[in-house]
Amino acid sequence: MNQPIAIDELVSVAQGEAMGELDAPMMAIVLSSDQSYDLPINSLETEADKARWALILRAAREHVEADAVAVLYPAWTTIKSKREKAVEREEDADAPSPIDTLFVQLHTRDRIYWRGFEQIRDPRHQRIIGFKRIGALSSDYDREEAPSVAAWLNTLFEPLPDEGEETEVDRELADLLEEPEVSAALYPRQMRSMH
Predict the structure, then answer these.
(1) 42 — pLDDT class (breaks 50, 70, 90)
(2) Which H or E element spans position 69?
(3) Residue 87: predicted pLDDT
(4) 139-142 and 36-40 beta bridge pairing
(5) Which of 52, 57, 74, 193 shows its CA 20 to 30 Å from the CA of 93?
(6) What string of DSSP letters covers 156-182?
């Protein structure tokens, strides 16, 4: 897989999914060599949510032997420029207001590709009409150097146990594959409408 091309394609998919909506969808895409599989994510608000979804994504990735997993999610983000930080130190100025952002992450065995975009909205209807890339929120990391905010996906590419050896994590993963939201999402996009 050519990761720079893949991240650009994922950005296009993420932006296409969000255009015209009131909020960008939160989802994961498991990318195997044959197909891509969408998993709509309900919530990543708590550590328990993140732990659960980390297991679900690992199970899905292992099930289809995927080399990459993408995570797309909206967030409120506050960005301060160096000038604003200096002014804030001098006086207790009003903090900059957060902006509505869309994050696209591509996780591979070796690297994490991270892109951040401001959501541009129609002032009248508040629907998303475009995106503006935010350079300060766009980076590529070696897996070991990933920021702590992505730590919940550290186990995504952990090696499988030896042949025939079953671990507690394997039993949890097997249980998760049986959940309706996961098993339905493991159909390729074009087949999902038939189920």
Answers:
(1) confident
(2) strand 68-77
(3) 45
(4) unpaired
(5) 74
(6) TTPPPPSTT---HHHHHHHHHHTSHHH
